[in-house]
Amino acid sequence: MSQDLWTAIDEYITGHLIEPDPALDTALSASDAAGLPQIAITPSQGKLLELLARIHHASSILELGTLGGYSTIWLARALPRDGRLVTLEREPSYAEIARASIDNAGFGEIVEIRVGPALQTLPELHAEGAGPFDLIFIDADKQNYPGYLEWSLKLSRVGTVIVGDNVVRAGAILDPAAGDPSFNDGGTAAGARRFYEMLAAEPRLSATAIQTVGAKGHDGFALALVRET
Ligand code: DHB
Ligand code: MG
What we know:
The chain is α/β, with parallel strands linked by helices and about 230 residues long. It has one domain: 3-Layer(aba) Sandwich (Rossmann fold), CATH 3.40.50.150. Helices cover about 40% and strands about 20% of the residues.
């Protein structure tokens, strides 16, 4: 198996199952034009998030890591008109690009972008009594996944679904010392590994992770359900 094959199959899947959406295309091209990192989720992953949110009848969604708003738009598509999506972004310049793309997609009214490090904006949200959210998508800097999971739980209810991106990183998850630099953790996977340990140890969570291959290489999604203890 090779990256070329994975990409070709991703394109096949997208060509058959993902209806074109100019607002999503515009969001990606605006991100690229502004020089944002090209690390957004793929169309097939976006559709999976939208379907998960629809299956779950989510009306409130929290996203950690807005980037250019591409995944935000996928998630917002699942929401009812009176739904709410709060998305957290550390980089003000990314948030500005995302704001324009989200507004252009017609979701300006239901999407709130909070700018700042999520470990600051999450406690603020909690103090305001925001949440509980029906679905939480964690896709920000990997070293802080443990803290993000802790705050996500505080902003959850029984039944909340938590999805985490990038939990495999082509196997870097197995190597605590020399992981993928994109874990942003001094080249280690320590944060992501701790995330798994927390998923395993937390009695309020029932979790799994699925390896994926596609246009973004070999990686994985974690999926957790908040349950009664
Ligand atoms: C990368 C991919 C991601 O999905 C992400 O959230 C961060 C980094 C990457 O490929 O480097
Ligand atoms: Mg990601």
